[in-house]
Amino acid sequence: MDGLPAVVESKNLMHRRDFLRQLAVTAPVLAAQSTRRPNILFAIADDWGHGHAGAYGAKWVKTPNFDRVAREGVLFHNCFTSNPKCSPCRATILTGRNSWQLKEAINHMSIFPNDFAVYPDLLVKAGYFVGHTGKGWGPGDFQSTGFKHNPAGPAFMKHRNKPPANGIANVDYAKNFEYFLEQRPNRETPFCFWLGFQEPHRKYEDGSGVRAGMKPEDVAVPKYLPDNAVVRGDMLDYAVEVEWLDQHLGRVLAKLEASGELDNTLVVVTSDHGMPFPRVKGQIYEHGFHIPLAIRWGKSIPAGRTVDDFINTRDFAPTFLEVAGVPKAPTITGRSFLDVLKSSKSGTVDPTRDTMLVAKERHDLGRPNDAGYPVRAIRTKEWLYVRNYTPDAWPAGNPETGYRNVDDSPTKTLVIASFDEYYKLSFGKRPAEELYHVSEDPECMKNLATVRAHAVVMRNLRDRMEKTLQEEGDPRMNGNAEFFDTIQYTGPRKHSYDEWLKNQK
């Protein structure tokens, strides 16, 4: 649990105890208030990238239910995660804190510290009925730190079904949601449910997209991947899983509508990071940390709007708490965007929401001494500045261990074998600094860091980023970067560098 000064730790724990005492007093009052307190449905995909929905203009993946939420609510163009990997992102959602403020939880396959309030627990104390199905927080270890169940809430996993393709989880998400509602004490009890899709996480059934009638020529292949039949087919297989989760979302919306509770439910649909392809998932480029977001809340928010404000995944927790009328925990550093939801404006609603910071340390194994690949970045409306702290290391993991920070796939195999410019973009070593005019180059193809005309812009972004990270207690900025090397990896070690060496003997 090291990593922050003892005085800060003591202060955090004191605030947390005081807050819980306050909540114990206010919870009975909240529970006695109007029986129409809003429900909260948080639907989160696993590895679904921004733009891959009909509401964003995609033609090659059909998402009528996400599109409905966007049409009857608000579609956000700039939602981001501060760490583009499953468990770090989900930790920011639950705690309302940025990745570098979460101790061990900054890393993938780590532990979930019990030092910070999580919004599901706060809602339980305020009288909400809480649960989750599918994937909550993870992968990693939450049991050893004292959590009695997944931080996303108690699991409801009774029902299974037969998916249309291999690789898709056999979880009947919609039926499990119905089961959750059946266990609710009564209709007057508000609920908060984490609908945790395991799709479109790999692996996929090869050719499932084409067999489903999808057309390879419809796929929009990003510039950093080769445009050929292998990649197009792989992306269609990904689309099959996106459409599967969207079908379950539709069944859940239909259940809420039939029960008369849809308009009193804040419906949030998003993802944890970008698609599981090279140069996306786990990488600090635009498509890695830019995620979809649509929100519906009946007549409680003006519908049919698109918003450009920057939304951070750490902003979900304080928003949910404000919607529920629950005090914000002192450990939360995100800020509610309920004012943005309730506004009647489109475009820019709150001009101060114009900056996003992103980070990673170690995600998966595959380097000597289990070393990470530390990165910090800042994204504004125009620019993305990236600082790679170990440019001599392999960013996706060492070649001999299989580039483990990129999921195995036909596209990965193809790009590695090509050993061309596409290989360099996804797997090659990177310079210490990168700068992209992201408003014009969202695929981050042209690094402008060495262009003299942009030197002032880059220096200002670097200074702004480092100052903010220092203020937020980032150990890497505050002289304690060695803490990150002490974090335990809780997953299997089969891809570690030590394991690779052993197999060479």
Oligomerization status of the protein chains: single chain
Mean pLDDT: 94
Write down the domain tally: 2
Strand content: 5-15%
Structural class of the secondary elements? alpha/beta
Secondary-structure element order, N to C? HEHEHEHEEHEHHEHEEEHHEEEHHEHH
What is the name of the CATH class of the largest domain? Answer: Alpha Beta
Biggest sheet record: 8 strands, mixed
The N- to C-terminal Cα distance equals 36 Å
Number of helix segments? 14
Beta-strand segment tally:
14
Gross morphology:
globular
Question: Which parts are unreliable, with pLDDT below 50 for 5 consecutive residues or more?
Answer: 1-11, 25-34
Full CATH superfamily name of the largest domain? Alkaline Phosphatase, subunit A
* Rg calculated over all Cα atoms: 22 Å
CATH-level-2 architecture of the largest domain? 3-Layer(aba) Sandwich
Helix content: 25-40%
CATH topology (fold) name of the largest domain: Alkaline Phosphatase, subunit A
Structure summary:
The protein is of the alpha/beta class. It contains 14 helices and 14 strands. It is globular, with a radius of gyration of 22 Å.
Can you walk me through this structure?
By secondary structure, the protein is α/β, with parallel strands linked by helices. The chain has two domains: 6-343, Alkaline Phosphatase, subunit A, CATH 3.40.720; 357-504, no CATH class. The protein is 31% helix and 14% strand. The chain has 14 helices and 14 strands. It has helices at 6-31, 64-71, 86-95, 119-125, 173-183, 208-211, 229-258, 286-289, 316-324, 338-342, 410-418, 421-427, 455-471, 497-504; strands at residues 39-45, 74-80, 110-111, 129-134, 140-141, 191-196, 265-271, 290-296, 305-307, 311-312, 355-360, 375-380, 384-388, 433-436. Strands 1, 2, 4, 6, 7, 8, 9 and 10 form an eight-stranded mixed β-sheet that branches. Strands 11-12-13-14 form a four-stranded antiparallel β-sheet, covered by helices on one side. It has a two-stranded parallel sheet with strand order 3-5. It is globular and about 60 Å long. Residues 1-11 and 25-34 have low confidence and may be disordered.
